[in-house]
Design goal:
- The chain is α+β, with helices and mostly antiparallel strands.
- Helices cover 17% and strands 36% of the residues.
- The chain contains four helices and twelve strands.
- The strands form two sheets. Strands 1, 3, 4, 5, 6, 8, 9 and 12 form an eight-stranded mixed beta sheet that branches.
Length: 216
């Protein structure tokens, strides 16, 4: 094993620790055009890290065939959904945790990823849905004009894969936005309560001591 000649008389540290393979992979992140939904710089780093971890866990064999000269492009996707596009079971799950609030807009929010080599998406490694983040990320969503009204309070809700809905920690901004935290995706609902309506904020993650109801 070759060792460097340390000229400052410090102790030879020995062989270097093998580098983290994640650091060799080029990773990019993209969000929808415009400002309808944005993500913080910290959350962008969490997304990139979570995407690489997911790909290496479930697609390790295919990635090994590519060497290290490939690129991973992850995307935040947002689609507005009409009420007709939401399954009744999902509607029921949301209704169980709204605590008097009304839904103003449904959304499909997701993270997907492509593995790219030589400028092309690798066969079988395109548009991969990433269902879970390693930790919560913060997303900022612009409130649709049709839902905006002075005095209203807003909260985001999420229906998980097991058809259990949850209230998300949500804060309102002065620029007609809400910021909320989540670590999983699709579908979501932006709900509101009118001033004096009695529709108070639902506590995130069942923190009021109750469990979200599951649709029959």
């Amino acid at each position: 094993v070759s060792r460097e000649n340390w000229g400052d008389n410090t102790e030879d540290p020995g062989p270097e620790t093998p580098p983290n393979p994640d650091e060799k992979v080029e990773s990019e992140f993209t969000a929808p055009d415009g400002s309808e939904i944005t993500v913080s710089e910290r959350s962008e780093k969490v997304i990139k890290k979570s995407v690489l971890a997911y790909l290496q866990e479930y697609y390790a064999d295919k990635l090994a065939e590519l060497g290290n000269d490939y690129k991973v492009v992850s995307r935040l996707n947002l689609s507005n959904l009409s009420e007709d596009e939401i399954d009744q079971a999902v509607k029921n799950a949301f209704s169980a945790v709204l605590n008097g609030k009304k839904i103003g807009q449904y959304y499909d929010i997701s993270i997907t990823a492509d593995v790219i080599k030589d400028g092309e998406v690798v066969l079988g490694l395109g548009n991969i849905a990433i269902p879970q983040m390693q930790e919560k990320i913060d997303l900022t969503l612009r409130i649709p004009e049709a839902v905006r009204k002075s005095g209203r309070t807003y909260q985001m809700f999420h229906c998980k894969a097991d058809t259990m809905a949850e209230a998300l920690a949500t804060s309102s901004g002065k620029d007609n936005t809400v910021t909320f935290s989540t670590d999983s995706f699709s579908p979501f609902a932006l709900a509101y309560a009118e001033k004096g309506s009695g529709g108070g904020p639902s506590k995130p993650d069942g923190s009021d001591g109750t469990k979200p109801s599951k649709s029959a």
